[in-house]
User: What shape does this take?
Amino acid sequence: MGSGPADEELMLRYGGGDAGAFETLYRRHRGPLYRFLLHQVKNDAATAEELFQDVWMRVIDFRGRYEARAKFSSWVYAIAHNRLMDFHRASGKAKFLDEEESADAIEMLPAGDPPAEIRLERKRAAERLLDALGRLPEAQREAFLLQQEGDLSVEEIAQATGVGRETAKTRLRYALAKLRASLSS
Amino acid sequence: MNDPRDHELSRIYREGAWPEPRRQLDDAILEASRRAARARRSASFVWRWGPRFALAATVVLTFSLLLRMSEEMPGEKIAPLLTPAARRAPPAAPRPARPVEEAKPLAEIATPKSEPAPPRGLVEEPPPTLQSAPAAPAFALKKEAPEAARADALQRGSDIQQNSRLREAALPPRELQPAPARPAPPPIAAPTAQAPGAAVTSGLATSLAARAPGVAERSPQAWLDDIRKLKAQGKTEDAQRELAEFRKRYPDYRLPDDLR
Assistant: This one.
């Protein structure tokens, strides 16, 4: 996350009225959080921006009640997760797949380019990865994005998404397996 | 594997598209955060100092209420709070408005109401009350406490000042000239500030002081008693002269039969 004061300290300072602390915090997390949301809404930029703004507004609103009992990023991504759940419920798209569904989803992944080409053309590989990511079950994609963008551990993913550690770990393992398959196929 | 992580996958993921929020979105969020921080600072000021101000205000209010209650309650606690002068002085009653008197000329104001004052101008002759003025209250005060009488005279003078100011606004300047024509003796005028109209005040006070030992001290009845005494002593001429003087002073006074 870079040098300087810890996220938790910055958030506490912002809770005390230090607007500069929030700006530092925002600069650190804006990209990862935005990408997390963008991938979760299938690259719908407008929706991602709306959710992104909502999440930060909630951070601002909760500034006085923040307690540094967990990592700031876990807390922010928990807010983002809840906001996403609300969004999916409202739009009727809430289909967090259970593990059985995710097993089916693996088979639904399309065949990719040859591995040699993937290795040679990293850019194209990345695009395919993102494409595969978009087709992952939402719970798995979320676990993957929380790990990649939020730099959260399995425990922190579990905490942010409100599930048990083993569930979070399973989701993450499935996600990684599918993505690897998409690249190697 | 406690924390499944595929570094190769992570590397490929990061080489992909790297979308970021628009700058306008950044600005909007940061502006909202600054507004909230300002509100927080002002709120924290209120939270920090509000209770202290409230406590201080309560203490001051309580103290002032107690002080007021102790002043209003009769008893020994009052004594140290009041000065001897304040204890002697009666409670100040609100001065009644005197719209009619204020419209009257200077001489009429100085004249007791029981006596009908002749319609004389200020220039023609001194007001009759300055020489006779048998009204009991004023002279009684003077007899008992000359200082108080002088204060009363000064108070009347201030009323006169006020009336003269009103008259200045209502009358042509010519009619206001008599007032300075009356000489202001120095003994009374000296201790008071010579404000406009002070000459009238000091002149009146001097007149009151000058008549104090003589005729002015007598009430009409006392004066008549003196005349009777003169008659009884056989001083008929003196008695006649006094009676004539009395009639001059009190033309409407009904004389007793023995003196007619």
In short: The two ends of chain B are 142 Å apart (CA to CA). The first helix of chain B runs from residue 7 to 14. Confidence is low (pLDDT under 50) at residues 96-146, 169-215 of chain B. Chain B touches chain A at residues 1-6, 9-10, 12-22, 25-26, 28-30, 32-34, 36-38, 40-41, 44 (CB under 8 Å).
